[in-house]
Each structure stands twice: as C-alpha cells, then as structure tokens.
Design a protein that fits this description.
With 410 residues, the chain is an alpha+beta fold. It is built from ten helices and 17 strands. The longest helix is centred in the N-terminal third of the chain and has 21 residues.
C-alpha cells in the first residue's frame, strides 16, 4: 500500500488538477520527488506488441525531444511485461527499477525509475502500487486525449485502419477468476476488416470474432455495421442466436456484403459454453498438451442475399478447466498462414499467458509472409480456469501465477 492513508487521494487530486495529457507526467514527477529519483518514465505498449514508447519523463533534461520507441523483443521491458514482476539492477552510480503498469491483466505499459540507492521492499511495494494507480489514471484520462492512442501506434493509420482499430475492445486482454483472454490483430497490407470483441457480465462471458469480405474502406464499413449490430444486440440482452440474426439482418439491410463470424457465450457459474458459427473457421482447443480443431456445425455467413436452408444454431462446446481455446480468422490458415503449423505452435504456447500466446501465433504468420500479409491474421486466445474459481489471486493489476514464465519464441 502507499505509505500514508492520504497519499492516494492527494495523488489523484494532483492528477485531476492537471490536463489529461499531463496525467502520467504528474505521477512520474510525484515519484521522482518522493524517492529522490533522478528520472522517472512512463512507457506505453504499442498496439503491435513489438515495442514501447516513452510518453512522459520526469527529471529528463531534453523532455521535448522526439518520443522514443524501443523494440521489446529480448529487452528487459519485455521481461517485465511477460512476468508482470518488478525488475531492478545497478545502473552506474544509481539503481534502475522497472515495474508493470497493468489493469486486470491488460499490460498498458511500464514505469521506469533511476533511484540513488537500491530500494527496500517497502519502497518497491509503493512504486508498484503507484504503477497500478497509473493504470487507472491512463484509462480514465484516455477518454479526453489522443496522447495514449498515439503512443500505441508505430505509424499513422489509413482511414480503413483507423475505423478498424476503433472497433476493437478498449482492452485487448482481460483476467477474471474463471478465465484469462487476449485478442490480437495483425493487419494485412490492405486491411481486411477483421475484428474481435468480448464483454464480461455478472454471469456470462461473451466472445466474438468476425471477418467481412473485401479490403480497405469497404471492409472497414462492413465491420462497423457488423460489430455495431452485435454489440447492440448483446447489450439489449439478446441470446446468441438472436445476436447472429441481427448481425445478418444489418449487413443485408445496409448492403455491406457478407461476413463470416463466430459468437460464443460462456456461463461463468456452470462453465456451459455455446457457439454460433456463421461460415467461419473452426476454433482450436488445447487440452492436456494436444491442440485439435473443434468440429462444429457451420451455418450461413452474415449478410447473404440468397435464401438460406435453416436458421442459426447455438451449439454446445465441451469446455473444461485447464483448456486453452483459440478463435481465429481465415488469415491464420490461408495464404501465408498455411505455411505455419498452427496446432503445433499452439501446443508450444502452453506456458505462456494468452497475451504472449496470441502475439506469438500472429507474429508467426506475419513472419511467414515477410510482414506483408495478404489477409488480416486475427486470434482470440482464452484460458478457461473453471467456474470453481471465484476470486482472482492478485495484489496489483495482474495474476503473476498466470504470467508467462519463458520468453515467447517461434
């Protein structure tokens, strides 16, 4: 906990007095003063998962320079994100400390401090607690400024990409007592409109992966109609089949072509899982070290203008504690994705958090394509812990017992 009962209210009041764009800077400056740090930085994780950007620095001489982007692969920053544990080392005459900035398993970024002396356990705990506070500060102030969105992007997006990114959930990862999940989208050269989504209710986890036909702006507009229809139906309390019906109707009424998709809902109290498959690739399930496709009945894609033989069907999915479930789009299986042995690769992610597992899988397909994908490669990776779990085992923003032990590799 923070050292004084009044510390948290004081810190939040200081953040509230500052402009939203300066919120992280306020936290950094507060840490610098409290611990006599020569420098405190906030680094945000890029959308690609391959880099971090240094967004704010307290104590730096040249604070107005170009924002620094640092590759993650093989770095100590990657280690901290992967393990979700603080890192410290001697750094010249001082001591370097790096702690994760995470909320409910969503790795937002890192706090890096240069301290005059090695921190004791109390100081390290206070820094880690402040990093957890910073996660909430970034989420709250991100509603008012583009700074954090800009920091997550390696290059300016096209119009289609801007639309597509806005359709993704605000947090790509989520941890709860019964599950952990993460989605990742590796965009193609021409953007193909892939999306994934999830929502956690009191009793239910909702998941969806969709893939409109076409590329560029047309695919992005189709995805907008599709995701809007699915979210609207879900938020109105519609069942799985009705959600699919509304998505189908929306694409037909607005002449946006057709799209494949897969919808799933899981009862968090019983573990009962149901799925609707609208012309979409089957999901993969990793159970007891072996990854296999889950055969399911395939119904018509959303938005077909021709008569269909039967309505959408909600099917039971065998989901057991310890299972890893992978929902994906055809970009993971076709074109360059066909060069990747996806089941074998999934089996190799057993010791990785869904966050690193999803990135490892999409990165493999991107590397097979020489980073020039013909189709979006999208996955949503779900670890099912089971309905018997009722509380997360955390002291900050992540369950460290579920964190990745080893560095992801292809």
């Amino acid at each position: 906990m923070l050292s004084e009962r009044s510390e948290l209210p004081r810190l939040l009041t200081a953040v509230e007095k500052a402009a939203p764009v300066d919120a992280a800077e306020v936290i950094a400056e507060d840490l610098r003063r409290r611990f006599d740090a020569t420098r405190v930085s906030f680094l945000i994780v890029d959308l690609t998962g391959n880099a971090v950007a240094r967004l704010s620095t307290a104590g730096a001489i040249d604070s107005g320079r170009e924002r620094e982007r640092i590759p993650l692969l093989g770095s100590l920053y990657e280690r901290v994100i992967r393990t979700q544990r603080p890192y410290q080392e001697a750094a010249g005459p001082g001591h370097r400390v790096v702690v994760p900035v995470t909320n409910r398993g969503d790795a937002i970024g890192l706090l890096e401090l240069l301290l005059p002396v090695p921190p004791d356990e109390e100081v390290l705990a206070e820094v880690a607690e402040t990093a957890h506070v910073l996660a909430y500060v970034v989420i709250a102030n991100g509603r008012f400024t583009d700074l954090y969105t800009w920091g997550k992007r390696s290059r300016p997006p096209t119009l289609a990409a801007e639309i597509q990114y806005q359709l993704l959930p605000a947090s790509l990862s989520c941890e709860a007592a019964q599950f952990s999940l993460c989605g990742h989208l590796e965009p193609s050269e021409d953007l193909s409109g892939d999306t994934f989504d999830y929502a956690v209710e009191r009793d239910t986890l909702h998941l969806s992966v969709t893939d409109p036909m076409g590329h560029d702006l047309n695919a992005a507009l189709a995805a907008t109609v599709l995701v809007g229809a699915l979210r609207g139906a879900r938020r109105a309390g519609a069942g799985l089949v009705e959600q699919a019906d509304r998505a189908d109707q929306a694409l037909r009424e607005h002449a946006r072509g057709h799209a494949t998709g897969q919808l799933m809902r899981i009862d968090l109290h019983t573990g009962r899982a149901q799925l609707v498959n609208a012309g979409h690739p089957w999901p993969l399930r990793l159970r007891e070290g072996s990854a296999k496709m889950i055969p399911c009945e395939v119904d018509h894609p959303f938005g077909l203008s021709v008569p269909v033989s039967h309505p959408y069907r909600a099917q039971e999915v065998d989901l057991r504690p310890g299972d890893r479930l992978l929902m994906l789009t055809d970009g993971m299986l076709e074109h360059q994705g066909a060069q990747v042995d996806l089941p074998a690769l999934l089996e190799g992610t057993l010791d990785l958090h869904p966050r690193e597992a999803a990135l490892t899988l999409t990165r493999a397909v991107a590397q097979a394509a020489g980073s020039r994908l013909e189709d979006d490669a999208t996955v949503m990776c779900l670890d099912w812990h089971g309905p018997q779990e009722t509380q997360r085992h955390v002291s900050s923003g992540a369950d460290t017992h579920q964190a990745s032990a080893a560095r992801p590799h292809l």
